[in-house]
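User: Can you predict the 3D structure of Glycosyltransferase? Sequence below.
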Amino acid sequence: MSDPDLGGMDLTVVAVADTEQYVRLSASMFDALPGHGHTVGLAVVRSPVAPAPARLRGAVADTGLAGRRVPVLTLPELRRLIRRRVPDVVMLNCTARVTDALSGILPTGRRRPVVVSTLPVPALPAGEHEWLHRSRVDLLVLHSLREVTAFSELGEKIGVGAEVALAGTPLPIVREPRRARPHRVVFAAQDHVPVPPRHRERILEALADLAENRPDLEVVVCPGERRTAAPGGDYEELWRSLVAAGRVHDHTVLFRAGPVAAQLDRARGLVTVGSPTALEAISMDVPVIVLSDVGDDVGATVFEDGDLFGTLDDVRAVRFRVPSPRWARENHFHPPEREDWTRRLAGLVLRARRGELPARPPLLDESVHRRARRRILADLGGAPSLLRPGPRAPWPAH
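Assistant: Sure. Here are the predicted structure tokens for Glycosyltransferase:
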């Protein structure tokens, strides 16, 4: 980590996450804190989407939290934990509406904790709703120079006072050349795109054509792990219907469950409609095709100007792309010396200890969003009374 250290400060940091992805990000942020004397704790807020214990263990397996139990707590339990720990920093690494609800239970007053939040990778396009639900944070941490620019400009436009900072991206980095001959083409399926079943069938047909024409390649579909039914249909079910109709030959394409990353070590290329897995592939020096002819995906915004878009005909012809160096620097593959989030955090902690952090009132219209907040509170195991501000916490001086 090349970012300036925290000036010798030993911090107490509590992070709250609500999904597996945010658990990973929180653990990665803990690992990036310079120094060794910090007290850190991670909890998951209890909700309908809280990860199962096995998923939680897997999310922190390769981090400094490996082997530690990550508790799943209700909102009242989280409030008691934060007030008991008296942290210097509270990280609200959650989805937008949950972050807003959690912001309302934090201590207030002159010596309150620094409130930090991050966004998943990738975070483009910059959404106003992300800022509005995070208007009470002091520091928003992002993972690419392009994201920092986009959210800084949007925050200034809508009047958010938080700082915006850059962190590293928790992606695997190739340490040495892959020894095995790359012979696998991997398609990373997504739940939400493309929606029309015919578009999904076209992808499967193109993959089947590739497998027929290139027997030297192993063509793999990673269907992903779903909690709800995919709106465009399940890829395995669509494949079976194509086989039954005689439009593809069975066993030409393989379906493999589990993380896409497990298939990338011997990959010749990755095919996606806009999956964040493309960033993981790029970090492992695996070429990519982001499909441009099977519908639009707002998640593909990050790949604009990266020379990564292609068509199903490109898949058939094995014409994979590597990103332009300029795009890579601006999008998650920046030089580590550009990362400044721990330095900015140190400045905010010093201000907090002097009682100089400003109050950050919510920007969401209370009359409009009160009902939505109550629903979120109910999902998180909290009573509506938690919306009423309590007495200001006598946060101690250091």
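Residues 184-330 form a domain with the Rossmann fold fold (CATH 3.40.50.2000). The longest strand covers residues 39-45.
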